Amino acid sequence: MQTQNTDTYLTGIVYKKNLGHYDVHHNGKITTCSVSAKLWKNFKTTKLPNHTGTRVKEVSEKHMDPIAIGDRVKFAPSNADHGMVVEVLPRKNYLARCSAKPMPGAYAFEQVIAANLDQVIPVFAAADPEPKWHMLDRYLVTAESYGIPSKIVITKFDLVRGKRSEDELINILKRYRAIGYPVILTSAKDGEGLSELKQALENCHSVLVGKSGVGKTTLLNALEPGLGLRIQAVNRATGKGRHTTSHLEMFPLDGGGTLIDTPGVREFGIWGLEPEDLAQYFPEMKALLGQCKFGLSCQHDEEPGCVIRQAVMDGRISPYRYQSYLRLKADM
Amino acid sequence: MRTYVKDINADFTCKNCGCFVSARSEVSGVVNRNHCPYCLYSRHVDLFTAGDRLCACKGLMAPIGLALKNSRDKYAKRNPGELMLVHCCEHCDRLSINRIAADDDTVKILAVLGNNSEVGPSFLERCWYEGIHPLRESHRTLVQTQLFGSAALMASHARAY
Known about the structure:
The complex is a heterodimer of chains A (332) and B (161). Chain A has 332 residues and is an alpha/beta fold. Chain A has helices spanning 37-44, 133-145, 164-179, 194-201, 216-223, 283-286, 307-314, 319-331, and strands at 10-18, 21-26, 29-35, 45-46, 57-58, 72-77, 82-88, 94-98, 110-115, 119-125, 152-155, 183-185, 205-209, 249-252, 258-261. Chain A is 23% helix and 23% strand. Chain A has a 6-stranded mixed sheet with strand order 12-11-10-13-15-14, with helices on both faces. With 161 residues, chain B is of the alpha+beta class. The relative contact order of chain B is 0.14. Chain B has a 4-stranded antiparallel sheet. In chain B, strands 1-2 form a two-stranded antiparallel ribbon. The radius of gyration of chain B is 17 Å and the shape is globular. At the A-B interface, helix 7 and helix 8 of A face loops of B.
């Protein structure tokens, strides 16, 4: 049996994936790779947790993928442009969500969005589509749970400038700034905030997340004008985005660092968090944990002597963030 | 997507008297059921607007008075306004006014009117400060008219004589 010499393996970073093929960058050269059968086998077979025998069962979810954008992989080049990924190197961190269920009763699974990140950039439009702040809290909690810092980016700021909704938006963003999340107001139309954003992205591996139509790809086009990525306007009839970007791709930035563009998501389920642990991923609540009358057993909902509820009453915690906390806990 | 499961219009059990309360609008006659129809107690869960459920206090709110809410009906200028219950949070002392529902215990409502005079001048002062005009014992006929209608009230007077 022939075996390939492991010395011929190259190490690269996955920049793009599309239908089982991965673009791996190595020394400025792109190699389109498939995944080795061994890697798939190791990934798709797992021991059942309560199984007494030695048999293994295949994971039935066909959408699961062993490789994420940003992964450092070892690959064996087969010719000039093609190769085969044979190993995924250990990740520094990763960002994942709970997959959408294709039908009622189906199993959800962990869907890794990107790996080896320095920061998460939740993108929200100032208007059109209207921002859903509860969704922002979901992104922030997910990023906190994976230990990745976040920077909030607001797009289409020109749509609210000078209107009453501008004051409302600024007031809402104040509470995120007070917690410690940087907020960048941008407008791709008139270039506002782009230099600030460029500075924030410099020498970092970042991922853009947000729902359809908020302007993630437009922002990327504005940052890197040569890319010419496809964009579409929001649907006038429904007021929703049109799912224009349909694959994950990482782009190198002129100022150093990379930026991952993701397809817009309608839902962002939180994966792998226990409801009891949720409060520690709200930075403003974290410092108060354990000080309640019932200590760490407090659910911060109906219990008497809860310091977090008291902090909400005193104005130290935003009531909207507290409501988000209760909603997320109820969704788990 | 799974949505927020805490439905604000869901049926509930009263924290004060323990009675089961249906929040169906067909039963209560109001869209937002915010107090128990048996003991008239409410809970402090709204912060800025009715139904926002943003308040973290969650204390019990006792019915401490009745008030009239000015009507904006330009075709009924002589309408004195809608009869409202004044609630006070037992935990943080916040006052709020709530609409009376169709299935509220009228005997309890009239009893609340009697309690108005017992709560003292500080209550009245706070009510005026918050823009609430509490009713007193002298307004009993007005309250009865609001609760039972003028025709029913006249009929009961006629029976009495």
